Amino acid sequence: MKTPSCTSSGRRKGIAEVVGALLLIIVVVIAVATLSIFLSRAQVNAENRQNYLTEVQNDELQFTNAQFAPNSPNVQWELDGNASQLGIQNPPRYYVSMISDSVVDLNQNGTTALTSASLYTLLSKNLVLGNFSEISKGTPVSYHSKQGRIVFHVGASNANFTFEPASWESLTLTIRNLNTIESGVTQIEVGDVWMRNWTWITQANTSLGMFSPVAPLSIPAKSSVNVFVNLSVPGASFTKNSSLTVKVISTFGNTFSTTYSTPVPVARASTASENYLITNRDVITLDGSQSYSAADTIQEYVWAVSIPYVNGNGAQNCVANAFQNSTYYITAFVTGETIQYTPESLFPSGLNSDCIDGPVQATLTVVDDLGFMSSSNYLILPQDQSISPPANLNLISAKCGPSMTNATTVQVNNIFGQPSPNVAVIAFGSGGVTVTGSTEVTTGPAGQATFTYACPSAGYLQVTAGSLPPLSVTVP
User: Fold this and answer.
1) 254 part of a folded domain
2) Nearest Cα residue to 257 out of 268, 248, 244
3) Do residues 239 and 276 share a domain?
4) Which of 46, 122, 166, 419 has the most CB atoms around its CB within 10 Å?
5) Are residues 319 and 415 in the same domain?
6) Which residues contact 118 (CB under 8 A, 6 or more apart)?
7) pTM above 0.90, yes or no
8) Between the CA of residue 398 and those of 12, 105, 391, 425, what are the distances in Å?
9) What CA–CA distance (Å, rounded) separates 375 from 377?
């Protein structure tokens, strides 16, 4: 009997080893291929991510132009919309423009002026339109500028209401994409308030619809778009006297911002003496030429010049404390980079009764090209009697006789023909006339000084006041 051979089993074992090796090779090939695909995809992803990061890093939106409305330099204040104060709900927006100390214009939403010298008066908690030609001295309405606002005082109803600094209604913004690929805008923020109403404006100035974060506005590479932003947001107010920061978020998630700052008013005052007929007078110059704006030029200079109002000032008279109460002073509004305080032009109706010699309070408001405004701190210049110095001496009366009190009264007037109080007048006699009372008398509120004298025989009484030509009186 033959013993079984191991040849067949060895053959099978060899085949198994070959198959296993082939399978291993296949697995290795598959693994290598898979790894190659994975590495290739990873490389592509890495390249895509790097490209995206490059795009994000190159993303740059630039604000090339901004137009705020209303941007008229004359629109500086608007009616306060406080319903509890006004007694009405949802009051319309009215702008007030100071024209002079006795004329104002009211505009509704920046349109044509309603009425020259028009104001609102508060009657029975309802606003009605009233026309007043005189508003500077409290009858029936007075106003004053305080801390960047205009306050009106209505004497008849004993009520006050305020015109606050005007606020912006809208903003037209030009945004440029400086990147080499398309970018866009998903959100716009103005003054820490996210805008919900902004539209793209075509070159034909037509709106193409409203955008929101879910429908971003695309900006092609190296191109610009114009965006209209409605700033009339409930619960928010963007006033002209406050700087404003505008931000946009791009489609790449980057934030770009710029700040539109208010101009910087610089108010200065100087006094110089000028020759005025036979005397010299002091002239105050108010200079705002050092004012500046960081990004734009100054377009408008508005000076609020105030003096105490004697008839409404009680016992305080011509003192700086009068500026603490609006009923004690009057204000004139004058435009110009540099102006002169000349009472005959600013307060012609008050030359006889108001404190034209001061103290003088001056505030400068400047408005730049964009319409942003800012007011300076108050300048208070002390009283200066040389603003309206004495100009002439006039004889009022002269008497002389053995049975009467011999006296003469002279009148001192200033350069405006008004009485000059507190002027030292000196008298002396010659020939048979001798001054018996005080030889130096200070004029009273009416600008008059009286001297007594003896005149046993004829002579002269001479009266002088400063550098004025003397007045010679023949006695008897």
Assistant:
1) yes
2) 248
3) no
4) 166
5) no
6) 104, 105, 106, 129, 130, 131, 132
7) no
8) 160, 54, 21, 16
9) 7
Lookup result for tokens 């008279």: 317
Is residue 45 a part of any domain in this protein? Answer: no
Query: To which residue do tokens 């980079």 refer?
Result: 337
**Spatial separation of the C-alpha atoms in residues 187 and 248, rounded to whole Å:** 6
- Read off the tokens for 476: 């008897």
Give the pair of three-digit tokens for residue 425.
Answer: 């007048």
Give the CATH number, domain containing residue 327: 2.60.40
The whole domain housing 242 covers 61-69+168-260
Taking only the tens of pLDDT, the chain with its 476 residues reads 455 555 666 666 666 666 666 777 776 667 666 766 666 665 656 555 555 655 667 788 999 999 998 877 667 777 654 434 444 445 556 566 655 544 455 555 444 333 323 343 322 223 333 333 323 333 334 444 444 455 554 444 444 556 677 888 889 999 999 988 888 888 899 998 888 888 887 544 444 444 444 467 888 989 999 998 988 887 788 888 899 999 999 888 899 999 999 999 999 999 999 888 778 899 999 999 999 998 778 988 988 888 887 766 665 678 888 887 766 777 777 889 999 999 988 888 778 778 899 999 998 989 898 889 888 888 999 999 899 998 888 887 776 665 556 888 899 998 888 888 889 999 988 888 888 888 999 998 889 999 888 887 778 888 998 888 888 888 76
The DSSP call for residue 148 is T
C-alpha distances (whole Å) from 223 to each of 145, 188, 268 are 46, 18, 46
And the tokens for 469?
Answer: 């030509």
Q: Which of 165, 180, 210 is the last residue of a domain?
A: 165
In a domain, 26, yes or no: no
Cβ atoms of residues 231 and 169 within 8 Å = yes
Q: Which of 339, 362, 387 is where one domain is finished?
A: 387
DSSP 3-state of 418: coil
Q: How far is residue 318's CA from residue 329's CA, in Å, rounded to a whole number?
A: 10
Q: What is the DSSP string of 99-139?
A: -SSS-EEEEETT-S-S-BTEEEEEETTEEEEEE-S--SSSS
Joined together, the tokens standing for residue 247 give 């931000």
Report the alpha-carbon distance of residue 414 to residue 389 in Å, rounded: 5
Longest dimension (CA), the chain: 195
One-letter amino acid for residue 217 of the chain: L
Q: What are the beta bridge partners of residue 380? A: 361
